[in-house]
Write a structure and sequence with these properties.
The structure holds two protein chains of two kinds. Chain A is 6% helix and 57% strand. Chain A has a single domain, classed as Outer membrane protein transport protein (OMPP1/FadL/TodX) (Porin, Beta Barrel). Chain A contains two helices and 19 strands. In chain B, β40 and β41 (746-751) form a beta hairpin. In chain B, α7 (214-224) packs parallel to α11 (419-437), α8 (272-281) runs parallel beside α10 and α11 (419-437) packs across α12. Classes of the chains: A mainly beta, B alpha+beta. β1 of chain A pairs parallel with β49 (836-839) of chain B.
């Protein structure tokens, strides 16, 4: 550090003052908003209010929806390969949900994200992120449910440097017929301090989601729309359409638009799934983004 | 001349009780002890090791061995016996005299121990204790006549100089006799007229104050007391006061001084060796030495067997001593330049050393016995060996030495006896010979030969106690070949300015007498043996070596008046001065005196810069070869002096002048005949212009360890005065780069570091007066192969600085978070020395990817961790 300091001192002498460019503040722990659910990933992240976003994946987005899942027990696992064009990372996630009585559901989820080995000029290291959480959902009667989860998130950036925080999601879900509405607060938690002395907030947002499902014969269509408004002033909104054929083959497409510094950049998503009744396999591919294009999310779900 | 001798015969007789004493210094001390000296000869190696410190008076030298000896003995001082000789230092060192040192011991008792200690030192070639010296005289009392010059009581037993005065010469002031003795009373009315005005030196007190002493004044009088002045005595070469002819010139080199210590007389001696050597440097031709070593160590008035053995030892080893070295120097270099060539106005090449044999009536007598000296024994008025005189086959001649009347201080006269008195008789006769025969080509060997061959055998040269033949002045003038040479058949005369060059064909003759006068009659009437006449100019040309007596000879008359007729003739003569017929008289007309000329290659306007040290040589000469007087005046600091190259140098150290400034100067060169060169000029010094940075020095980007760049500093920092600047270089971080300054102005910067490094190289440029300019060079060293460098590295905190190439180029920059958000984007022209600096304080901790795309579209990415 001393030599580093000396170099900086010399730099101040050697290099003239250039008109300094300043980076605007962004949110820390953006990985809290990674879409581990391949079905929702295929909808560009929309679908928080639909069945697509519920069940064992509720802990990753809308905890209230867990109590509305038809199955008594659901388990999911997913694999994602993100941002191969920028800084590739591999995300392995797993989650479970279970009905624990009348009108009560519990969820648990874990996600581990590993980044490729970085060349840091004499140091090589593979940073990693981890999220582990648990949630609870309560049916409030009628078609209303309330859910909350608490997640512990940790980011290991260097061998001697790691950061951690606790983030909570609280949501309200209404489902009746083919309509689903959701709203709440996501990633509510403390700030992350940097060595610069500036504290960055988690990607806390106010979330609103809606979905509508119609069936026409063997084809069913679900239209989803989600929007997040972040505490940082950023926003992100997505719209997606899922078509199911005979309840077995699922095709999805979606588009997300985001403000410049939103944690999830704008992109186009395409997805597909195969439902075998007690198990579902889904896959999604993200594109039309200079940074997260060619990202892939795949997963499987079993329910009984 | 006979009237002169009568005057000499009527000197007042005084009793011994009234013997005049010279004033002498008085010293009141409890216990006075004369200092004790050793003379030490070092070898070349030891001399070069120690001479600098010893010259500065520092006894602690670079030789530990010598230091040990001097410290153990408590040596008081150690100085060169023959001090630094200025213009004569080259020949002094050539003869090795600079290696002789005089060591002063704290007490006499240490002499033996010190001699052994120095003798055992590596690098010491010879050690001698300075033997006590004494004056060779006995009882001072009055005599009533100058029998030594003209013995009327015992005819034939004198130096026979009267006829020489009548026929040849009474002495010539160009001949200088150095008297190494007690001081000469330079104000004595019977001596002052023949004493030099300056050059005298007191080697006891080591100053120029001469204290007149009985002994020194007495021997000086025998040589050159003023003759024919109606006062006192006459010297053998004392001139003719009535005729306005000076005798030979006396130079007092005082080596004895008597003090009164607690009421008693004590005599201290100075360095005879130094005096002998410096006599040559001071222009003496003859060295007169009426002194020798005192062998009576127990002072009982007798020489015991041990004392005799000691005398023998000194005599046998005299050749190794310092006094011998100094005598050799005098014999070789008196009357000569540094290279041993006879000086133009010197009557003789080399010197003659004359020594008294000593008064112990023994076979030995040093230093007189040294072969370079003419040793003189003493004769009584009746032509017998004086009872006290030392003797031996080493005694070359004898002379009157008993009851000799001569000058003593305070205008008085006294009679003294001793070989001290005999010695100046010989010096006086030698001075007479030199006065007449001296000239270009006349050598000390010629003088000694004439002196010794002209001496007369009076029966004292053989037997048990020989003291050699009696010196005979007239015999010396008459000695040699008695054949009359052929006359010079023909000669040519060529005017050279107002000088005249004569060329003549040599004949088999010892010498030539050349006569010139404005009147033909003067030349016709001139006596060849004693030429004199109104306006008569004479010249002598010696061809002593028979091998020289062929071919054409050249003689230059330099004392002629310009634009005048001269009548010139030449006669040859034999060794004993027998002349041929005078040649035909030719007429020549001297040219008008040529004006002295002053030339220089300098074509400037005498305007100088403040930093300059000016040296402009001038050649000043006279077409006639006249002696010139150069007078330079200025109100500034410039000097104008003649230097070893023969040229006159105008020198000025402009740095010493507060500029701007202007001065005037005048140069006047005159010869003796009215020729004059005159010039007035001004010179000025401009104010110093300070160095200035005239262009920005380039920044230096080095792309790997060992990479280097060279900058010609003179292209960026210049001095309006045009002077060469003194560049000094400093580096802020010498682990980044190293610097070299080649040829004083090419700066080479070499990368030392193998990692990204930044530093500054400061260049300071100084001119001769210390004014300076400064400039900084920014240097960046980057690792090999790296075209983009991140100053803070890959792990950042507050700032991210991106350095690109040496020249500005267009770059597109993107910074993307790991979740894909482009947190920063920009475009612009950047370079290594004009980098992009991003304030990353507000960036959230995490992993980022930096994309840098250059103008060709090449994209480079870097992983960054923000803490």
């Amino acid at each position: 550090m001393k030599k580093f300091g000396i170099i900086l001192l010399l730099a101040a002498a050697v290099l003239p003052a250039h008109a300094q460019d300043k980076v605007r503040q962004n949110e820390a722990f953006g990985f809290l908003r990674y879409e581990q659910n391949p079905a929702r990933a295929g909808l560009a992240g929309a679908g928080a209010a639909s069945a697509v976003g519920g069940g064992a994946f509720a802990a990753f987005g809308n905890p209230a929806s867990a109590v509305l899942a038809p199955s008594k027990f659901e388990a999911v696992a997913s694999y994602a390969r993100r941002s191969p064009n920028v800084s590739a990372n591999t995300d392995l996630s797993a989650g479970i949900s279970a009905h624990a009585g009348k009108g009560l559901a519990i969820t648990a989820a874990f996600s581990r994200i590993s980044m490729e080995k970085l060349d840091l000029g004499g140091i090589s290291y593979s940073p990693s992120q981890m999220v582990a959480g648990a949630g609870l959902a309560i049916a409030l009667g009628g078609s209303l449910a309330l859910g909350a989860d608490v997640n512990y998130a940790k980011e290991q950036l260097l061998e001697d440097y790691s950061l951690s925080s606790v983030a909570a999601d609280v949501t309200l879900q209404y489902s009746k017929g083919g309509l689903g509405l959701a709203g709440g607060v996501r990633s509510l938690g403390g700030k992350i301090n940097s060595e610069s002395g500036i504290a960055s907030s988690l990607p806390t947002s106010a979330m609103l989601a809606a979905s509508y499902n119609v069936a026409a014969g063997p084809v069913g269509l679900t239209l989803c729309a989600d929007a997040d408004y972040y505490l940082s002033g950023n926003w992100s909104a997505a719209a997606g359409l899922e078509a199911s054929i005979a309840g077995t083959v699922l095709l999805r497409a979606g588009y997300r638009a985001s403000s410049e510094l939103a944690v999830t950049p704008s992109h186009l998503a395409l997805g597909a799934g195969l439902s075998l009744g007690f198990a579902t396999i889904d896959i999604a591919w993200l594109t039309a983004s200079e940074t997260i294009g060619n990202s892939l999310v795949a997963g499987a779900k079993v329910n009984f | 001349m006979s009237a002169l001798l009568l005057l000499a015969a009527s000197c007042t007789k005084e009793s011994p009780a009234d013997e005049p004493k010279a004033e002498q210094p008085e010293i009141q001390v409890d216990a006075y002890k004369a200092p004790t000296f050793l003379n030490v000869l070092l070898d070349d190696e030891l001399t070069s090791l120690v001479e600098d410190q010893l010259a500065s008076g520092i006894l602690r030298t670079k030789s530990d061995a010598l230091n040990s000896v001097t410290e153990d003995l408590g040596v008081v001082s150690m100085e060169r016996l023959f001090p630094f000789a200025g213009e004569y230092e080259p020949r002094t060192r050539r003869e090795g005299l600079h290696k002789w040192y005089r060591v002063e011991l704290p007490s006499e008792e240490l002499a033996t121990t010190a001699t052994k200690a120095f003798g055992a030192l590596p690098g010491v070639e010879y050690v001698e204790e300075q033997a006590p010296a004494k004056l060779d005289t006995n009882d001072p009392y009055w005599s009533s006549n100058l029998w030594g010059l003209n013995n009327t009581r015992y005819s034939g037993f004198d130096v026979n100089c009267a006829k020489v005065w009548q026929e040849f010469t009474v002495g010539n002031p160009k001949v200088v006799v150095a008297v190494l003795d007690g001081g000469i009373d330079l104000s004595h009315p019977d001596l002052a007229w023949n004493c030099l005005e300056s050059g005298h030196y007191n080697y006891v007190e080591r100053n120029t104050e001469i204290t007149g002493d009985n002994h020194g004044t007495h021997v000086a009088g025998t040589i050159a007391a003023v003759s024919n002045n109606g006062t006192g005595v006459a010297g053998i070469a004392g001139g003719d006061y009535a005729a306005g002819k000076h005798g030979v010139s006396l130079l007092s080199l005082q080596c004895f001084q008597t003090y009164t210590v607690n009421g008693k007389d004590v005599t201290r001696s100075g360095s005879f060796e130094t005096a002998m050597k410096e006599a040559a440097d001071k222009g003496a031709n003859i060295s007169q030495n009426s002194w020798g070593y005192d062998y009576d160590s127990d002072e009982d008035g007798k020489i015991s067997n041990d004392e005799l053995a000691h005398a023998k030892s000194i005599a046998e080893n005299i050749g190794r001593s310092a006094i011998a070295a100094s005598m050799n120097y005098f014999v070789k270099y008196a009357g000569c330049d540094n290279d041993g060539n006879q000086l133009k106005d010197s009557p003789m090449k080399g010197g003659l050393v004359v020594f008294a044999a000593g008064n112990d009536n023994i076979y030995y007598g040093a230093p007189a016995n040294y072969e370079a000296a003419v040793a003189v024994g003493a004769m009584t008025q009746s032509g017998k060996k004086a009872s006290f005189s030392n003797y031996g086959d080493w005694v070359d001649v004898c002379a009157p030495g008993y009851q000799i009347n001569s000058t003593v201080p305070n205008g008085k006269y006294a009679a003294l006896s001793g070989t001290s008195m005999a010695c100046p008789h010989v010096s006086g006769v030698a001075a007479l010979i030199l006065s007449y025969f001296g000239g270009q080509g006349f050598t000390a060997d010629d003088l000694r030969k004439r002196l010794e061959e002209g001496a007369r055998d009076i029966g004292l040269s053989e037997g048990d106690s020989p003291i050699g033949p009696l010196v005979d002045a007239y015999g010396s003038f008459m000695s040699g070949s008695s054949e009359v040479p052929d006359p010079v058949a023909d000669f040519t005369l060529t005017p050279l300015g107002h000088n005249v060059r004569m060329n003549f064909s040599a004949v088999d003759a010892y010498g030539y007498l050349i006569l010139a006068a404005p009147s033909e009659q003067t030349v016709k009437n001139a006596s060849l043996t004693n030429p004199e006449g109104s306006g008569l100019i004479t010249g002598n040309f010696i061809t002593a070596n028979p091998e020289e007596r062929t071919g054409t000879k050249e003689f230059l008359f330099t004392e002629l008046v310009p634009d005048r007729d001269y009548y010139v003739a030449i006669a040859s003569y034999s060794y004993d001065r027998r002349f041929s017929e005078l040649s035909a008289i030719r007429k020549v007309h001297t040219n008008v005196n040529a004006v002295p000329t002053v030339q220089t290659a300098y074509d400037g306007n005498f305007t100088f810069r403040n930093f300059q040290t000016v040296d402009i040589p001038f050649e000043i000469s006279d077409p006639d070869g006249d002696i010139l007087k150069v007078d330079f005046q200025t109100d500034g600091r410039a000097t104008f002096t003649q230097e070893d190259d023969g040229l006159w140098h105008f020198r000025l150290s402009c740095q010493l002048v507060r500029a701007p400034a202007s001065f005037s100067a005048s140069l006047v060169v005159t010869d003796d005949f009215g020729g004059k060169y005159s010039n007035r000029f001004n010179y000025s010094i401009l104010k110093n212009a300070e160095p200035a940075v005239t262009a920005d020095l380039p920044n230096v980007l080095l792309s790997k360890q060992g990479d280097r760049k060279t900058i010609e500093l003179n292209d960026y920092i210049t001095d309006e005065d045009g002077e060469e600047l003194d560049f000094r270089i400093t580096v802020a971080d010498n682990t980044a780069v190293s610097t070299e300054l080649l040829d004083g102005h090419l700066l080479r910067i070499t990368a030392v570091s193998s990692v990204l490094s930044l530093t500054e190289v400061r260049v300071l440029a100084y001119d001769a007066l210390g004014a300076s300019a400064k400039a900084d060079i920014r240097c960046i060293v980057r690792p090999e192969g790296e075209s983009i460098s991140l100053l803070e590295g890959r792990v950042i905190s507050d700032r991210l600085t991106i350095l690109s190439g040496e020249e500005p180029e267009k770059l597109s920059i993107r910074l993307v978070s790991s979740n894909g958000t482009v947190v920063f984007r920009t475009e612009g022209e950047f370079s290594a020395f004009n980098p992009l600096e991003i304030d990353t304080r507000y960036l959230a901790p995490g992993v980022y990817t930096l994309f840098v795309t250059d103008s060709s579209g090449k994209e480079t990415r870097y992983s960054i961790v923000k803490r």
